[in-house]
Fold this protein.
Amino acid sequence: MQKPCLLCIGHRGAMGHLPENTLSSIRKALELGAPCVEVDVYNVDGHLVVFHDDRLERTTNAAGYLAEQSFDYLRTLDAGDGQRIPTLEEVCDEIDSKACLNIELKGPDTAAPVVELIANYVKKGWCKETFLVSSFDHRELLTVKHLDRDIKLGALIRGLPVNDAKFAQDLGAFSVHPSLDFIDQRFVDDAHGRGLKVYVYVVNQMEDINMMYALGVDGVFSNFPERVLENYSQGKRTNRWI
Ligand code: G3P
Ligand code: CA
């Protein structure tokens, strides 16, 4: 029998297995068969670095605010298992167009350099639809839209807005990314009625993965991609968000 379909997005690579947002974590997500990978991005000294927190303590051997460090110093740090904090370019090269990439803009001034990076990869032959740019900072997403209206946008939210997914439609987003903590049927139906995909973060437990399928969401971010992949087919494998 055909398995039901729920898109699997490897969260910070496959952070349930290897240090988050590192090249080994990305590689692991790909090895597990994740068709999509998500990473977090900051702009430090004009360099796009792949990192989640605004501080260094939790995931490196250093302390302090990320934005107060130089790029060269950040590259000397251990981001887990002796690995460097990767650049977004290194992550793209690791993915090598084999999976879809969701770039989450974490810090300020990330929109323009990310648009430029995407343009460079498109020049190298990648499809623009390989990329999905998301953020909790919807003004940063609007900047992406103004710079390149064809880049797909994902609007991240923590709680549920009073007008459900209307804000994401107004933004011209491709998808809306609600939290597992708040998602409900009304929101999913409203988003679908507006033509938006619904990708829920972060869904790790099998009962929650099954519940997301029952709600009819389109995909989930998971630290353990294999749990989604084992139980749900991914539809037609592609390196495009479609
Ligand atoms: O993009 C989905 C999810 O990663 C958003 O939350 O805090 O894990 O970046 P966070
Ligand atoms: Ca993220």
Q: What stands out?
A: The mean pLDDT is 97.
